[in-house]
Give the backbone structure.
Amino acid sequence: MDEKIIKLLLIEDNPGDARLIKEMLAESRITRFELRHANLIQTGLDDLFEKKFDVVLLDLSLPDSHGIETFNKVRSHVPLMPIIVLTSLDDELLAIEAAQRGAQDYLVKGHVDGNLLIRSILYAMERKHAEEALRRAHDEMEQRVMERTAQLSLSYDLLLKEIEERKHAEKALQKSEFRYRTIVEMTNEGIWSLDRDFRIVFINGKGAEMLGYRSEEMPGRRITDFVLEDDLADHQGMIQALSHGTSKSFEGRYRHRNGGSKWMLVSATPLLNGNNCFAGSIIMVTDITERKAYEAEILELNSELEQRVQERTEELSKANKALKESEETARAIINAATESLMLTDCEGTILTLNKSAAERLCGTIGDLKGTNSYCLIPQDLAINRKKFAEEVMRTCKPLHFEDMLQGIWLENSIYPVFNELGSVTRLAIYSVDITERKRVNDELRKAKESAESAARLKAEFTANMSHEIRTPMNGIIGMVSLLMDDSATPEQMEALETIKTSSYALLDIVNDILDFSKIEQGKMKVENCPFHLRDLIEATISTFAFGARNKGLHLSKVVSDDLPEALMGDQVRIRQILLNLLGNAIKFTENGEVKISVSSFQKDDGYWEVLLSVEDTGIGISPEAMSKLFSPFTQAESSTTRRFGGTGLGLTISRSLVELMEGKIWAESSPGEGSTFYVLLNLKEASLAPQEIISVQKVTVQGKMLKVLLAEDNMVNQQVILKMLRRLGHEADSAVDGKAAVEAAINGKYDLILMDVQMPVMDGLEATRHIRRLLAGRPKIIALTASALKEDRERCLQAGMNDFLSKPIRLQDLKVALEAI
């Protein structure tokens, strides 16, 4: 059998309330509903005219109709259709009146859940069906009585059949009464049925529950047994009104079983017998205890507000009195002020001024009042000030400017003064002697220029020192690499390895100083490119695997499973941070373990909170040393500088890099128990796995041997690189400066030029630009640069170079670069 669909018409202008009712009905598991929504009374009436509905859900407050008139309009169109009124807490009395005029029920918006709404609809449907059944049964019974009366003379059997049919009708009536009683028990309101002596004949479960009783405990008792003594008078009035056949509504307090009390909204309706005499009453009771508490709180707040208003009024009165008393004091202060104050009309005539302004204009207050202020100052100054005054009157906005009067620099401000119509009728002029400030600012400007010049010199010095150190280091490391490839005794190999290790340690120091210099100048930038953090962790750990193994340390990692495959960030700088932290951990740990851990937490908008930690079992850090842990050129213990070495810049650079990435870095440590360093970064998940970015043009030239031109002014470096090239099986020539390199490139057919950037006569960048103009893209050019700065490398590529090698040049790096050409 198909499930019955209940058709509802919702007349509600509030979209939020309408949406909430739709959601409640959609969640029903008891029955299905078909809902049509109208936001105006006229639209709803048109729908009622065109379609058939089972129940109407009606808001009494609509844009085109309000109050009980809204209910009357709907009732007049559909006299027999069940109507459930929707109302706010403030309009509850209107809803009660609508119920008295025939509404099946009313619901208070904001205090209705899905179960209550559905029970109310079902109650309305059951009541409608019960009334229709009773009506049909009554009509049928009347018809049958008439027919049977006419047929009594015809057949005794027909009479017996009539009696049987009446019995069936009575059973149907009893069944309908049972359904009606069930609906009464389901309602959220208390329903009391009283006899003519106002004793309880019936009370539903909700009504008894409101006072802490069961419904079977209350019948037989008078209603006044449950009323507080202070509210008996209201109930006596209700009893008197009901006895005379009049309905009564009021608010009163009822005694709860636990000794407390409940505020109730009472609606009483008399029941009359066939002789139109009072036979009992029906009382609808709503628990309004919570609402009364809100009202009491509002009254208390109003009382407090009135008290505050009174107190504020007294304060304002005192303030007005104090204001009047202070006016004379204010005048005295204004006259004593060293700043000049003057009030003029729009033509510049002085209306009033203080003593300082009079002295600055070489007069007295009495003499200067009524004088035109422009006539008291030099003509060029008067022209400018008059122009500024006209600008203030035109724009109605204050204006500030500086000028000099009698050798004194003044900062002047002109303010418009408005009348009650909003027009500018006065000008207030305020002047301050800023001669000393101008002198100080001039000195500060000179000091700033001097500091900026010193910073530039420092940056140039750092870059030059980097070049000067890297250039000879290129010779040392290059020669060492060549010697290590030759046959050498174990003792010689050990010595060469020591030279190589020391050289790279010196390069690390130079790199730290360069990074620190860039950070100080605010030139350090971070990239935002896709990368694999897991691969970066693996590569970083592999860098230290040999050193950790030599010290007998266990090097491990723990990476959370939910870490995204690809993230957006600067992998170079993140690796630099990890290198610093892992390097320190291994350096300061004699035995035990060094562990790197990565955990991640997903945030909003595709971002991940990534926590990197490096934990060791080393010497630890004292609480006193923690305060200077990230300061430049310092280490946790001064003795560690001698024992462990280092510039003390690693953690400072790491902190600056983390802050550039808007992250956090901190440490936790106990002396003798090891340390843990944490780095917290917010990184966005990359939509695609990062692809390798090739920043230089790579081409392949057929053949194994290349003809190479080396442009290098340093003879040692020239000798080292030439030997490297020849050892790799290539033919090589040399040039000592950029100009010679250009001439050699024009006259010789070279596959490749290794171009030093800094050379006399003509530098490598200018030489590259000449070659590109003259030879149209050939040969390939690789820059040899002692600078590690990214912007220097970018300048090489912009000049037309295809790749770059950073000094000192290793044989392996040169081999890889040549194989790509």
Q: What stands out?
A: The longest helix spans residues 435-485. The first strand starts at residue 5 and ends at 11.
